[in-house]
Amino acid sequence: MSDLETELEAAAFRRLLEHLRTRTDVQNIDLMITGGFCRNCLADWYREAAAARGIELGKDAARERIYGEPFAEWKAKHQPEATPEQLAAFAAAQRRHA
Hints:
There is one protein chain. This protein has 98 residues and is an all-alpha fold. The protein is built from 6 helices and no strands. The protein is 73% helix and 0% strand. Helix 2 (28-35) runs parallel beside helix 6 (84-96) and helix 3 crosses helix 4 (59-67). The longest helix has 20 residues, at 3-22. The protein is globular.
């Protein structure tokens, strides 16, 4: 992979993070239902990429990088309890992709 490709991918990733930070109306469960990943998945992938390079990064630090603030604060402000409909849709999505 060229340096240019890496730079473009990094820019696209930063844009995705900014988009997700402004779209607080889109819940993680909705992302999981439709896309099969959520903000927490991105944090896990970020942490795994760091680990692959010998960098130790805790779960909370990785989530803060993705959410733009401590996860507990983001959750308190933006994440209501999942509705029964969301939970049912999530279960159905899990069955389809298992």
